[in-house]
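ok here's Guanine deaminase:
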Amino acid sequence: MANSGKPTPAMRHVYRGTFMHSTQQAPLQILEDALLGVDKDGKIAFIGKGGELNKLSQDFGFSPSEVTQLTKDEFFMPGMVDTHIHAPQYSYAGTALDLPLLQWLDTYTFPVESRFRDLEFAKKVYTQVVKRTLRNGTTTACYFATIHTDASLLLGKIANDFGQRALVGKVCMDMNNSVQHYKETTQDSQDETRRWVLTFLQSNYPLVKPVVTPRFVLSCTGPLLGELGAIARDNNLHIQSHISENAQEVKIAKEMFPESETYTDIYHKFNLLTDKTVMAHGCYLSDDELNLFKETGASLSHCPNSNISLCSGVLNVRNVLKHKVKLGLGTDVAGGYSASMLDAVRRARDTSKFITIQTPEHETLTFEEVFRLATLGGSQALSLDEQTGNFEVGKDFDALRVNVAAPEGPIDISQEEGPKVGSVSPNHVCWFVFFSVTGDDRNIVEVYVAGRKVIPFTEPTAE
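and the structure:
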């Protein structure tokens, strides 16, 4: 709806066609023959009906000839939000999935991540992962980097230069018995985290924020966890980590901190559970722990590909939603072998169906529900839903223009008569999500972040 009481903003884009998004009330809402205007600041200025073109053009000062009309096979959807991805691990994604979590970390992850002290190597991998996730339709990503401050700052710069909205975390870990040279002293981790936060904030990136990142309980001492909680509180920062991913991990965490009743209590004790916290996995959380998540406002990132690929566990998403805990999806590269959020959507449905096979009374997640988890749910999990996640006036235009009939695309539409212009059916978005089997999805023809077109890469970018 138009905000007629405010000064008329200049329009950057005006589109007419079908828009699909999630709201608090509906997991999938279809706006047929809609008009959406994006102002010069990249924010959604109005959403109206196609029949209101003349009135809206007068109210918002644009010419009807400037409107971009979507074709009969196109629609806009919100950009997808990856709530958990390890940027350095992209260098070996799709390999090394033959070990359970803790042995996998020792054998593959820590040795690879230790290489990111080399900034040239870091620049190459971080450029690859940002470009790949953007091509896959990830407009917002919550990244783990490594313990190396300068390389972590470089990841933030690369994401900002390419126009991706991101949270970037310098990893903190003062315990690591398997790769001795890949850990910090407690004091160094605290000092470098402060330097990283200060430098990051001084860089004043419009799209990228720092996130305090203790790797997980098994790699951090109590004093470090406590200091990281204080740094996050004093600077009002996001927090990310892992929780209850693997049964062995849960057992060791409780042995390390016997004064805490649960894994969740450990983080809570050190002030690391806040309404700006996102914890990955949560496969073994009890109902009491989920209640604590709800009370503190902390979020979970569901990473179904990784949970299955490393044989870690299964998250009952229906139970998380029952407890009204904020929840998004994550690719968890490279525990998850795919950097595509479309894969995360499919695996979330697969996991839910697997639970239904074991427990027939379980209510399988619907397509519409996982669509919301990948978009609005992710923005809520990262406490960014006032900026992004769906199409509401005042939010940034983070969006994917999808053409299910794109040339050489992976979808074959067999129905004899296509839908009319402005009448794209829910089947279109279903085809796109579940039958687009390529990683670099050709059906995503344009990607916008804050109103700026970032895919195709038509503007000069940092390589």
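+1. The longest helix spans residues 186-203.
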